[in-house]
Amino acid sequence: MLITEGQLDDPRVQALLAHHFTSARAQTAPGSAHALDLSGLKSPDIRFWSVWDEESVVAIGALKRISQSHGEIKSMHTVQSHRRKGTGSLLLRHIFDEARQMPLARLSLETGSWPYFLPAHAFYKRHGFVECPPFGNYVADPNSVFMTLDLATGSKR
């Protein structure tokens, strides 16, 4: 597996991003979806990575800086054929390492509250994230679950 930064102009990456964007939005109440589209991921405050298995993109993820010490995980998605095989964990650990180099002290994320998102909740909890109140520009929403991780200790901050 190879992790590369950028690649947002690659049609294979764009196809996986479109799938992630469409499927996440389809599983979320109108007005409660926060998945970024391609143009949103091209923002200068966002870094984007893709995971490749030979010529196939198998996972994507991004990191948005929301303050000097706080970042947000965005657009994490692993193709079905590579789930539960460590691909998502590989990418998430890479994002942790990159965040520490920035240097960020805390990472947070927002995901849906609906059953479709339960595997994501379990995935992030396995990596030390805990539920938290809304952060950044988010507001309390029963359709959202907010999670955070202190990068130094691996626990809630």
What does this structure look like?
This protein is α+β, with helices and mostly antiparallel strands and 157 residues long. It has a domain at 2-106: Aminopeptidase. 28% of the residues lie in helices and 30% in strands. The chain has helices at residues 11-26, 38-41, 87-101, 118-126; strands at residues 2-5, 46-53, 56-65, 70-78, 106-112, 130-131, 144-150. Strands 1-2-3-4-5-7-6 form a 7-stranded mixed β-sheet, sandwiched between helices. Strand 2 (46-53) and strand 3 form a beta hairpin. The longest helix is centred in the first third of the chain and has 16 residues, at 11-26. It starts with a strand and ends in a 7-residue tail after the last strand.
Q: What does the secondary structure layout of this molecule look like, with pairings?
A:
Blueprint: E1 2-5, H1 11-26, H2 38-41, E2 46-53, E3 56-65, E4 70-78, H3 87-101, E5 106-112, H4 118-126, E6 130-131, E7 144-150
Parallel strand pairs: 4-5
Antiparallel strand pairs: 1-2, 2-3, 3-4, 5-7, 6-7
Quickly list its features.
globular, 157 residues, Aminopeptidase, alpha+beta
Summed up:
The chain is of the alpha+beta class and 157 residues long. The chain is 28% helix and 30% strand.
CATH architecture annotation of the domain at 2-106: 3-Layer(aba) Sandwich
C-alpha geometry:
globular
| Distance between the amino and carboxyl termini | 32 Å
Largest sheet, in brief, is: 7 strands, mixed
